[in-house]
Amino acid sequence: MNQVQTRRGGRSKRMSNRQSNITKAFDKAWRQWKNNYPPVEQFSADEIETIHNASLKVLSDNGIKVLSPLARDYYAKAGMTVKGEIVHFDPELVLDLIGKAPPLVTMKARGENRDITIGRNQVGVCTTGGTPNFSDLQQGRKPGTLAKLQDFFRMAQSFDVIHIIGPSVEPQDVPTNIRHLHITQSMTSYTDKVPFVYFRGTEAVADSYGIIRLANGVSKEEFSRHPYCYSVANSNSPLMLDDLMCKGIIDAALAGQLMVLTPFTLSGAMAPVTIAGALVMQNAEALAGMCLTQIVNPGAPVCYGSFTSNVDMKTGAPAFGTPEYVKAAFGSGQLARRYDLPMRSSGVTASNAPDAQAAYETQMSMWGALMGGCNLLLHGAGWLEGGLTASAEKFIIDVEMLQMFAELFKPVEVSEATLGLDAITDVGHGGHFFGTQHTLERFETAFYSPLLSDWSNFENWQERGSLDATQRANRIYLDTIKNYDEPELPSDRKEAIEEFVAKRAEEGGADISK
């Protein structure tokens, strides 16, 4: 590891060439989260059943508009009623199909000890994804480029609280027909963590899967036996699945890769203005999409996606990190557990800058997600401007919050050693514990050491330039990029990927309309 490797088995060592308390954290215990807290439940069991039954009624009576003829054929052969482009779902068949999906999903990564399991009380955290812009304090907000995407991959690789890689920045300097090639090549080269694949047509999905197989050194058959990557399919709320998303759902199911079905149900806009009503629609759309995977390939891994929030009723703009978002996240967790499926949520904000608003809205989102039983936290680091910008400074701020959650999820030991009775006796009345043997044996590891927070007094903070959290985050971002260690990729695999990308680019790349 590089010079920011940590003091205690890979955690929280102060950099010798820095005066400020900037750390970079590597901690194997952070590589797989287990949330042993009981999830917060927004609704009673009866209320969840009411929402569930209402969703089945919507699926049966209203149906889902499915724009893919292939998907409609799958639904019809499974026993659903298809009238034109509308698929009406049999409630019992829906539950039978959903029951075939696994409650726990382990995604295999090419890096050692990088596999990640989601479901039940196990949690994986992903970077932000899909943003058209990138921002930092040096250059401001600019359209995304491949170079900035690669910088985000470098940051994602550098912190153990990031388990899964998202397509953080859209590289708009790369043509769309070959963009997926360079995204996937970069993702599998700059990181050794679980990668993401866009649903941008069957050809593009096949290309991406091919690169991931080469990076992992596995055959097509072995690839289909385990999920090595994940993708997100968004329903077109209200009550529609478009052709491209249906093709992606089918492609992922056939390949045995994880598909996250996420309705984008903004309460008051694309969903009813009430939280209960929005959850009814979210649940109906999620069940419809996940059913398709089980029709195509029973037992294929899926994740229940939740992204229900509200809008600003004055402007119509999406709002995130709101009390309504939190309540919907709590309810979404209950619905996912109703079907014993992994649940996806997000750490999101509507703020346009990496400021206090961004921090408190993201903290609200994360609390709603994680304490509501989220298993896959997407947009966990870097999301800004309602998803239109990936911010370097926001990434570091989010990593600090994620590291605190990771520490929160660690069990607290209660034993003869930790009760400290000898230390209490030694200190007696009116003393202090700084010099006790109990403290001296533990002072380096007793507490979480912050990545970003500055705990110095005002005078020392002022002497070091009076840097606020955003400015300190910028310094950590720059240091992280400078000191990044690229994970080893065997030369034969690297060459095979380069040849694959060159060949597919020469052939014209992928037709992303198919």
Determine the mean pLDDT.
94
Our measurement of the CA-to-CA distance between the termini, rounded to an integer number of angstroms, reads 43 Å
- Low-confidence spans: 1-24
Q: What do we call the CATH topology of the domain at 105-408? A: TIM Barrel
The percent range for strand residues is 5-15%
CATH superfamily of the domain at 105-408: Trimethylamine methyltransferase-like
CATH class of the domain at 105-408: Alpha Beta
Q: Total number of β-strand segments? A: 22
Number of helices: 18
CATH architecture of the domain at 105-408: Alpha-Beta Barrel
Q: Report the helical percentage.
A: 40-55%
**Major sheet size, sense and barrel closure:** 7 strands, mixed
Structural class: alpha/beta
For the biggest β-sheet, the strand order reads 3-9-20-19-16-14-12
Short description:
This protein is of the alpha/beta class and 514 residues long.
How would you portray this structure in words?
This protein has 514 residues and is of the alpha/beta class. It has a domain at 105-408: TIM Barrel, CATH 3.20.20.480. Helix content is 43%, strand content 14%. The protein is built from 18 helices and 22 strands. The strands form 6 sheets. The chain has a 7-stranded mixed beta sheet. Helix 11 links the parallel strand 19 (343-346) and strand 20 (376-378). Helix 9 runs parallel beside helix 10 and helix 11 (356-371) packs parallel to helix 12. The chain is globular, with a radius of gyration of 24 Å. The model is unreliable at 1-24 (pLDDT under 50).
